[in-house]
Amino acid sequence: MKDDPRNHPFRDSHQDIETARHIPDTPQTRAPSYRLAFADDEFLCRDELRPVRLQLELLKPQMLLDEAGIASTVVLFGGARIPEPAKRDTARTPTLADLSKYYDEAREFARLMTLKSLQSGGRENVISTGGGPGVMEAGNRGAADAGGASIGLNIVLPHEQAPNEYVTPGLCFNFHYFGIRKMHFLMRAKAVAVFPGGFGTLDETFEALTLIQTGRMERIPFLLFGEAFWRKIINWDALAEAGTISAEDLDLFVFVETAQQAVAAIETWQGAGEKRGSIPGR
C-alpha cells in the first residue's frame, strides 16, 4: 500500500487480492487450490490452520490497541443477565432483580475511573469489558458517561450476540477462542473489578486469581463487588482451612459494595507495587 511505512520493492498483498478478482474465469482459476492462501476463508478455517487462527486473534486486538495508544486497562467482569434497575421487572428471578443495584455501581465505577483516566491523557486505566449486556454494558456505559473510550471483547456464541451500544466502535473486538479473549483481558490490566455473575464470571475470576497466586501475573487491585453474594456461593475460608489455598491467598482480593469504595481500594492498594511475575510473553 502507498502508506505502508516499510521500504521494500514487493507488490502489496491488497494489490494482488484486487488483481485476482479480475483474472479470466477458467476451470483452473475457479479451483479452490488457485485462491490466494491468505484470502481463502475455507483454507484458513481448516483444522490444520488452528495455530494460525490463534495467532491472528492474539495479534489483531494487540496491534489495534497499540495503535490506539491504550497503555493499561481496568477490567470489569460480571453477569450478562443483571438488568439495570429501571428494568429490574424483566429479571428472571427475584435475586437477579435485587442484584440490579450492581448495574448502577458498575456504571458509576467505570465513570469515576474514566474521569481519572482522562485527567492523565486517557491512555491509562481504560475500561475493558466483555462487550455484552448486563454488567458489561454498565461498564462501557459509565465510560461513555464520562466522555471517554472503552474496550469491548465480545465472543461469538451459539445464540445471537452483539456488542452493547456503549463500546467505542474502534475498540470493539470479536473472538472465537475464549482463551485468547481472556488473555487480552489481562495483558494490560492494572485492576480487576468483579461483579456478581455466572459461570463465565467465575471462570474469568478464578483464572485471573490463579495467575496472580502462582506468580504468573503481577499482583494488582482485585475487587469483588457484593460480599454477601461472593461468600454465599464460595466458602473462601473453607479453602484456606482445608489447606487447598494458603491463608495469605485470601489477601489477593478485597470485598467492596460501592463504586466509591472500589476507587478508594485501588488508590490504597497495599500490593500495587509488588511484583509477582507476569503473564508469559509480556
Describe, in short, the structure shown.
The protein has 282 residues and is of the alpha/beta class. Helix content is 42%, strand content 11%.
Task: For the structure shown, list the relevant keywords.
single chain, 282 residues, alpha/beta, Rossmann fold, 12 helices, 11% strand
The largest pleated sheet is described as: 7 strands, parallel
Proportion in β-strands = 5-15%
Mean pLDDT: 92
Strand runs, count = 7
- Shape designation: elongated
Going by CATH, the architecture would be 3-Layer(aba) Sandwich
- What topology, given as strand order, has the largest sheet? 4-3-2-1-5-6-7
The radius of gyration is 22 Å
Q: How far apart are the first and last residues' alpha carbons, in Å?
A: 30 Å
Uncertain residue segments? 272-282
Order of helices and strands: HHHHEHHEHEEHEHEHHEH
At the first level of CATH, what is the class? Alpha Beta
Helical fraction equals 40-55%
The tally of domains stands at 1
How would you explain this protein's 3D organization?
The protein is an alpha/beta fold. It has one domain (49-267): Rossmann fold. It has 12 helices and 7 strands. Strands 4-3-2-1-5-6-7 form a 7-stranded parallel β-sheet, sandwiched between helices. Helix 9 (199-213) links the parallel strand 5 and strand 6. Helix 6 (101-119) runs parallel beside helix 7 (135-145) and helix 6 (101-119) crosses helix 12. The protein is elongated and about 70 Å long. 33% of the residues are buried. Residues 272-282 have low confidence and may be disordered.
